[in-house]
UniProtKB/TrEMBL annotation, chains A, B:
InterPro entries, per the entry: D-Glu_cyclase (IPR009906), Putative_hydro-lyase (IPR038021), UPF0317 (IPR016938)
Entry keyword RNA-binding: no
HAMAP family attached to this UniProt entry: Hydro_lyase
This enzyme's EC code(s): 4.2.1.-
Any matching Pfam family: D-Glu_cyclase
Signal peptide segment: none
PANTHER family, per database record: D-GLUTAMATE CYCLASE, MITOCHONDRIAL
Family of this protein: Belongs to the D-glutamate cyclase family.
Protein name: Putative hydro-lyase WHH00_15425
Record's keyword terms, sorted: Lyase
Amino acid sequence: MTSRASILPAEAREAFRAGLVEPTSGWSRGYAQANVLSIPREHAFDLLLFAQRNPKPCPILGILEPGQTTGPLLAGGDIRTDVPKYTVYRDGEKVDEPTDITGYWQDDLVTFLIGCSFTFESALQDGGVRIAHIDQGVNVPMYRTNRPCAPAGAMAGPMVVSMRPVPASQVADAVRITSRYPAVHGAPVHVGNPEELGIADLGRPDFGDAVEIAAGQIPVFWACGVTPQAAVMQSRPPLAIGHAPGHMLITDARDSDYLVP
Amino acid sequence: MTSRASILPAEAREAFRAGLVEPTSGWSRGYAQANVLSIPREHAFDLLLFAQRNPKPCPILGILEPGQTTGPLLAGGDIRTDVPKYTVYRDGEKVDEPTDITGYWQDDLVTFLIGCSFTFESALQDGGVRIAHIDQGVNVPMYRTNRPCAPAGAMAGPMVVSMRPVPASQVADAVRITSRYPAVHGAPVHVGNPEELGIADLGRPDFGDAVEIAAGQIPVFWACGVTPQAAVMQSRPPLAIGHAPGHMLITDARDSDYLVP
């Protein structure tokens, strides 16, 4: 197998379909990765409305209509097999972490493909901003905040944020660079003061791993695609299937497709 | 009554609620007007998905959830009475043009409030670009094009555009000014060649009125909020209620709320 960074999306999906299971960070550099969330059509209006009202944490890259298993973002692929690992929820409770969801599939499932901040990390690196969690070899730290999202029907919950420590001299660069990617969370929602977001201890993230924050670095917070999963679970749909954390769908869209001038 | 341009939105809605019937062009200058479309929840997912896939013709300003009759865009108002005139469709056919829809209301109706290009006309005028249909005292001309929208479930149809003739020396200004209002259709979708859009005769619009095009003026086309109404009618929902053409909802949002840098 060639280096993970240079594998094309269709080849990556084929490898996962054939049974490979590993996190997708660093795979297929230059191509957008997506959060995946499949729920019954009966609940899909509320989720789409939640996303419309909360575009920063819930940027929609694409939607597969009821029963559809493929689409232009995964040409020739199958959403039931092409994600390395899934999480299955019944009535809001996790019941399984399979590598294939063919056995759980229902013809009324609508699949949301939601932007992921991994997409702007390459641009940050290209701009000279180092990514602590990549350097430290861990998952990005994520935190529930005290900021409620705008509710929609049965969907409600707090905004979840990801955090990257940035040297004070580069905070403006990090804001400027990520602002140009509004479809993948865009500019930070907060800079510098975790207490104001209701985060008591940066060393204890709610999801992902803690990272070391060096002297002179400022914690910078971006809206996170975990937000809609948390809101959906709160509404306890009979069935919901998401990707397992860090195991994203690798799409055919290029990171640059989401760049604005 | 004070001049229509200086009436506040809540006062305008109260006048319409009390029975006044007239087009809203020129009312409450500086406040955004909205296309209105109420359909049963069962059809609302498809329409919201259609809007998500076609943001230029279908910019969502707000959505009232099933049965809701008021919201932040019409504080203290009632969507069943505060639009000057409505159009009621059964199975896609027009059946009534009432000034109050209380008798048609159902608790499963979801109401879409969709951006209207009237919002950027003030900005064009402030930028020195005259609006032909205002100068000529007629409704804006609108045309079905040969450009299909991205379909969503049962919703499909061509993009509908509005046309404003602009002096060649001001086309760049018109593009620049309207680009800054992406939530109300934004930049033009086409400049200069109606044949390419499948429009055979500018003198015979599909909706609204024809305008005179002076020598040296270029026809400029913007995506139009009539597009989703046409797509909804094609799907023939059992009930759909829209505003009557030119008789919009006057919202509490300011035009400037939709301005981007």
